[in-house]
Design goal:
With 571 residues, this protein is α+β, with helices and mostly antiparallel strands. It has 20 helices and 12 strands. The strands form 3 sheets. Strands 1-2-3-4 form a 4-stranded antiparallel beta sheet. Strands 5-7-8-6 form a 4-stranded mixed beta sheet. The chain has a 4-stranded mixed beta sheet with strand order 9-10-12-11.
Length: 571
C-alpha cells in the first residue's frame, strides 16, 4: 500500500531540514556546514533502513532527497538578496513603483492547477497501489517548489534605480538581480503580460525571467543571458530613461501588441501549451488517460498497451507540440533559408524546415520523430552569429535528423527505465526474504537508478560526437569550419553566462576565473561533464575535430570511449 500523505510529507520536511541545518552552520564555517549535512544524511539513511521495510525505505529515502533539493532550490538566491539589501542601505536609490493585482498570481496558480490536475486525480482515485503514484508525489514536489517561488516573487519583488552609478536592482525573496544599465541590449514596452511565454510550465528553450505582478503594460529588458519582464508604473518613462543611457535605436517605437490571456486568438496556442505541459513537462495526460481506463475496469495489460501507444503518438507529433511550446515561427530570413537549404540538401534531408524562437541563449535544436516530421529551431541570439557559425550549427543538427537521434534517444531512455521498473517489481513479487537482503538489494536498485543519467549521457554524447564529425563533412571548410563554429558559439555562450551569473550571484573574488567552456577544466568538473552531461566538454570536441581528419569512424569512436574514462580520472 502507498504510505499515507502525512508520512510522505514528513520525510520531505526531513530532507528540507537537513539542508537548512547545514545552511545555518555554513554561516559559521562552510566546511562545518557541509560536514553536518553529510552526517545528518547518513543518520537519516541508517534510521530509515533500521525502522522500515525495503520498499518503504527505498521510497522514504527518495522523499528525503526530494525535500533536500527542494530546499536548495528555495535558498539558492539567499546570499545575493542579502548582498543587495546591504548595498542598498549605503546608497541613494529611487524605488520604481509596481502595481500588484491579485488576479495575476491567481491565474498563474490556475494554470499550474490545470497542468497537474490529471496527476492529482489519479493520486486520489487511482489504484491503491501504483508505481505512478510515487512518480506523482516526486513530480508534485518540484511543482510545489516552483509555486512557492512564484508566489514569493509576486509578493516580495521590488525594483530600485541608482541614477549615479547607473544600476538597476531587482530584489525578491528567491531571485534578485544587480544589472548595470550599460549591459542592457534592448528595452521595449509590451501592451500586456504574455503569460503563455512566461509561465515556466508552458515554455521550452526560454531565457525569460518573470517578475510581473499585474496585468498591464510590461517593460521588457534584454541583457546577456536573459530577458526580464516587469510590470511597473510609467513603463514608457522608464523605457525612455534606459534608452537614453544605452543609445539604442527605435526609442520612439510604440508598445508592442500582446493579446490578453483570454483573447480568442490565444485559444489554439493555450491548448497546445497545456498539452505540452501535461505530456512533456508532466504526466497528467498519461495519468488522466489511465484513470479513465481504470474507471471502466479495463484490464491492466490493455492499459499498458494504450499508454505505450499514446507515448508513440506523442513522439510522432513532438515537432508540432514543441513548436507551440517554444512559440517558434518558420524563419523568413533569406540568409538562413539559403544556408539551411545548402546544408540539408547535402545531408539528403531537403524538406526540413528552420524555425526561430525568441531567446538570448545561443543554441540550436533538432526535433521530430523522423526525417519527414523534423525541424531545426534556432534562437534569435544564434541568428546574429556569422554565416560560418550558423552553417556549423545547421550541419550538426542535420546529422541528428538524418540519424533519427531524437527517436533513438527516447527509445533508449524508455528501455532502461522499463528494465529498472521490471527488476523492482520482480524483487517485490518473487523475493520472499526481502528483509534479510534489503541492504544489498537497495544498493543494487539504487545503483541502477543512479546509472540512468550515466547511460543517458553515454547515448547522447555518442550522438553529439557523431553529429560533430559527420556534420563537418557537410561544410565547405570541413573540420576547421566546424571548429570555428563551435568556438564562436562557445565564446558567445560563455560571455552571456558570465554576465548572467554576475547579475544573480554574490560578487566573485577578483582572482576567480570566469567560465570558459573551451578550456580544459578541473578534474571534478570534467568527471561531471563526461559522465552526466548530454554533451561532451567543448574543449574536447574542439580538440578532436582539429586532430581527427578521418571523419566519423572507428578511430574517433575509440578515442571518445577512452577519453570518457581517462579525462574523468586523470589530471
Amino acid at each position: 500500500m502507498l504510505p499515507s500523505l502525512n508520512i510522505m510529507v514528513l520525510f520531505i520536511i526531513a530532507g528540507v531540514g537537513i539542508q537548512l541545518v547545514g545552511l545555518l552552520f555554513e554561516k559559521v564555517n562552510k566546511k562545518v556546514g557541509t560536514t553536518i549535512e553529510i552526517i545528518l544524511a547518513l543518520l537519516s539513511l541508517g534510521s530509515i533502513f533500521y525502522h522500515y521495510s525495503f520498499m518503504d525505505g527505498f521510497i522514504y529515502i527518495a522523499l528525503v532527497s526530494s525535500g533536500y533539493f527542494l530546499a536548495i532550490s528555495l535558498t539558492t538566491g539567499h546570499e545575493k538578496r542579502k548582498e543587495i539589501e546591504k548595498e542598498l542601505h549605503h546608497i541613494i536609490v529611487e524605488e520604481i513603483a509596481l502595481e500588484r493585482g491579485i488576479s495575476r498570481i491567481i491565474l498563474d496558480l490556475f494554470i499550474t492547477g490545470l497542468v497537474v490536475m490529471g496527476a492529482i486525480l489519479f493520486y486520489i482515485f487511482g489504484p491503491d497501489y501504483s508505481a505512478l503514484k510515487y512518480m506523482i508525489i516526486f513530480g508534485l514536489v518540484s511543482t510545489v517548489t516552483e509555486v512557492i517561488k512564484r508566489i514569493g516573487g509576486y509578493a516580495t519583488v521590488k525594483l530600485f534605480y541608482d541614477k549615479e552609478e547607473k544600476q538597476l536592482y531587482i530584489l525578491s525573496r528567491f531571485e534578485s538581480r544587480k544589472i548595470p544599465i550599460e549591459d542592457v541590449e534592448e528595452v521595449e514596452v509590451e501592451t500586456n503580460v504574455d503569460l503563455l511565454k512566461l509561465h515556466p510550465l508552458l515554455t521550452m528553450f526560454s531565457s525569460n525571467t518573470d517578475f510581473t505582478t499585474n496585468f498591464q503594460k510590461v517593460l521588457r529588458i534584454t541583457v546577456p543571458g536573459e530577458t526580464i519582464y516587469v510590470t511597473i508604473q510609467e513603463p514608457e518613462k522608464w523605457k525612455s530613461t534606459i534608452v537614453n543611457m544605452i543609445k539604442v535605436e527605435g526609442e520612439e517605437s510604440s508598445p508592442q501588441l500582446v493579446l490578453p490571456f483570454w483573447h480568442w486568438k490565444n485559444g489554439k496556442r493555450l491548448i497546445g501549451k497545456l498539452y505540452f505541459a501535461s505530456t512533456v513537462k508532466g504526466i497528467s495526460a498519461y495519468t488522466g488517460l489511465l484513470l479513465l481506463l481504470y474507471y471502466f475496469e479495463v484490464p491492466s495489460s490493455i492499459m499498458i498497451g494504450v499508454a505505450l501507444a499514446y507515448w508513440v503518438f506523442n513522439l510522432y507529433i513532438s515537432d508540432q507540440v514543441l513548436r507551440v511550446a517554444m512559440d517558434a515561427k518558420e524563419t523568413q530570413n533569406p540568409r538562413i533559408i539559403q544556408l539551411s537549404q545548402r546544408i540539408f540538401e547535402k545531408a539528403g534531408i531537403p524538406n526540413v524546415r528552420v524555425y526561430e524562437t525568441e531567446s538570448t541563449e545561443y543554441n540550436g535544436l533538432a526535433t521530430g520523430m523522423h526525417i519527414g516530421k523534423a525541424m531545426v529551431t534556432l534562437t534569435t541570439a544564434t541568428l546574429k552569429l556569422p554565416n560560418e557559425a550558423i552553417e556549423g550549427i545547421l550541419a550538426h543538427e542535420a546529422i541528428h535528423i538524418q540519424k533519427r537521434d531524437v527517436l533513438w534517444g527516447q527509445i533508449w531512455r524508455f528501455v532502461y527505465m522499463a528494465l529498472v521498473l521490471a527488476l523492482v517489481l520482480y524483487i517485490q513479487t518473487y523475493v520472499t526474504n526481502l528483509e534479510e537482503y534489503k541492504v544489498p538489494i537497495f544498493l543494487g536498485v539504487w545503483t541502477l537508478m543512479m546509472l540512468f543519467p550515466i547511460m543517458q549521457s553515454f547515448c547522447s554524447q555518442w550522438m553529439e560526437v557523431r553529429a560533430d564529425h559527420l556534420g563537418a563533412s557537410l561544410l565547405e571548410g570541413k573540420s576547421e569550419q566546424m571548429v570555428n563554429s563551435l568556438i564562436i558559439l562557445s565564446q558567445k555562450q560563455d560571455e552571456a553566462i558570465n554576465k548572467s551569473i554576475s547579475y544573480s550571484t554574490v560578487q566573485k573574488n577578483e582572482d576567480e576565473k570566469e567560465v570558459s567552456s573551451i578550456e580544459r577544466d578541473s578534474l571534478l568538473w570534467r568527471f561531471i561533464e563526461f559522465q552526466f552531461m548530454l554533451h561532451p566538454p567543448m574543449y574536447w570536441r574542439v580538440q578532436t575535430l582539429r586532430e581527427n581528419k578521418e571523419g566519423w569512424g572507428k578511430k574517433i569512436r575509440k578515442r571518445w570511449m577512452v577519453d570518457r574514462i581517462k579525462e574523468s580520472v586523470l589530471r
